[in-house]
Amino acid sequence: MTAVTTSPPRVRPSGGLPAEATSFVGRRHEVAEVRRLLSMSRVVTLTGGGGVGKTRLALRVGHEVRRAFRDGVWLVELGALPGPDLLVQAVAEALEIRDVTPASPVDLLAGHLRDKQALVILDNCEHLLDACAVLAETLLRAAGEVRILATSRQALGIAGEQAVPVAPLPVPDGDVRCASLEALVQCEAMRLFAERARAVLPGFAVTDGNGDVVAAIVRRLDGLPLAIELAAVRLRALSARQLLDRLDDRFRLLTAGSRAVLPRHQTLRALIDWSYALCSDKERLLWERVSVFAGGLDLEAAETVCSGDGIARQDVVDLVIGLVDKSVLIREDHLDGVRYRMLETLREYGRERLCAHGREAELRRRHRGYYRELAAQARAELFGPGQVAWFTRLQVEHANLRLALESCFAAADPRAGLSMAADLLYHWITSYYLGEGRSWLERGLADDAEPGEVRGRALWAAAWLAVIQADLPAAAALLRESRRIGERLGEESILGYVALFSGMIEMCGGRPGNAIGHYEEALARHRAAAEPTGQAMTLIRLSMAHSFLGRSRPAVAAAETCLNVCEEHEERWHKAYMMMALGVEMWRQGDQGRATELERQSLLFARSLGDWLGAGLAVEVLAWIAAAQGHHRRAAWLLGVVRAVWSSLGASLSGFGHLAGYHEECEARTRQALGEAAFGAAVRHGARMPYEEGLAYALREDGGGQNGAGRHGRAPAARLTRREREIAALVAQGLTNREIAASLVISQRTAEGHIEHILTKLGFTSRAQIAVWVGERARAEEPPAEE
């Protein structure tokens, strides 16, 4: 079962699952069976044809079992992937893995999941069946507590797999005249039709007067959820009786062909054919053209890619509204505006029609052209006030950007692909896709050997990604070729970036004096090229190098110049890194107040952008500041928080390795002040904090004191969920885990998982501490005595 017209913002409130956009109807026995099989088997596959409701069933199961998986339930949507090459990276992206190491994607994914207790939902595996099977087996071998729930039109075919055929919804028996109205409305197919009908006709209800007609409709649709939802939309214009009559007319016409097609497939095909036939000529054209997008699109993309040749640009908005009304497109609210997506079954239909009309190649060309221009525009405007909006937009459009890149290389236009991959440099760095970005650049560099500006720029871009991944030999080789091209072309910008990243390599090698020489060359070249982005990047690194050598005056001067450049262009990302670096210098000078404020401002921006590297660096420096102020327990907690960040990224202080000595000094000082046992406990508790709570603690948004602790010297309590508060109260009453499980009708394993989460969030080590905490909360919430 799927959404009809609109859905809420596509956020993931529960560890990787999107909010359910529409009510879930029926399937109680199927949900129970899948849950039972997941408790026995590590891989379960829901099989069935398109439109039968596999995805919705998987999501419902995921929501119901999420408390049993300590590390979350994660949905991986595979329908938009054009092929198997990016399967592993798509899974890593869905699991929010932000690794910056050069490890292979499979090793990275397996390593991340090795100690995790998680459920991974692989949705729409059929076009990647072999690759999904291999990946599933690899992950199951590597991670003993990971389970996989897949949806596919056929089973994966791996050892231990439990395949569950998903049938259409039950429909009423043929003779409904003997059935009571109460029995009819309890039938799952009837309930789904009624609920979706009310979405378009609020007063609709199944009554004695229309019950037999509605029953005939859902029987005619074979109980297929997608067919029922598409048909229910017709009640905007038709009565239930008119709908049934027209269904019969259409099905007699459209299913009179090959008997080799399964009846249910004929049913869905006939209904989609009817939906297509009910569209105007221009709506049909738009349906076909939208099918070339992956993962969704906004109105601007629809107007640019889909207009022309029969559709005027100004007509696109009305045609989109028409397709939303007909449930062909689904409207979704995102943080950056309204987007539209198409169900995979309808996308396949549109693509089939587009191919039949001989227009697929043309629309693919338009699609990749639009996203190439989008990437180039982003590169031109990223250093400025629209920066955050661009970062957000590129992340939302990632599936289309990926498809456009693949299309460039498939169309034998590697230079276009290489240029686009280089234009997206900041997208690769600030999101989940650093490894993927380097792969695209390397693919383009291998396919296009023309030593022009595009290659020179792509070489230094790939070198920066290699530096972040600590692959310094590869970075040096890339920069040598980039320098040769820059010198031959006389391109100051290319030579400026080559000098900048050469300086970073020297800094990583412990040669700050040599690094400063490269940075000064880079600054001069970027000024000559009027390149503000390069100037800001270089000034950050120049300031840090001077600071590292104890040269406070030039360090501060470079920092202030950088901040002025950023202010002039209303730029925030580089400014945040500059504030972090200046905070290090202020900490070195003993100005802990200014250092703290600089790091807080840097952290606030990194958090708003989702920049884990920037956040980790700011938390690092806040830990050093806390230790310098004698707040050793807070310092230890922050070291734990940042340990978790570096673990998620796969490397500590990535690209800023020269700061490692400060980290080690802070750790040694804090361990000595607290003692080994207390230090270890505090670090472990900090490392267990969820990412957002850890950042809130670092920012002191938790209300903690100077030592970052509550009344009892512990880190402040995180906010417990309603169920966790309920279980904490039962713990305070002295109930055992088994008694708690029986009281709440949950498994003992689930109860134990909740208690572990409570201990972690509150920073406790015993049930007695939970009981004390519950008592203190109860007393604090008592109303004051009346006078």
UniProtKB/TrEMBL annotation:
Residues 1-20 are annotated as: Disordered. Residues 713-778 form the HTH luxR-type domain. CDD domains: LuxR_C_like. GO terms for molecular function: DNA binding. GO terms for biological process: regulation of DNA-templated transcription. PROSITE patterns: HTH_LUXR_2. It comes from the Bacteria. This is LuxR family transcriptional regulator. It comes from Nonomuraea cypriaca.
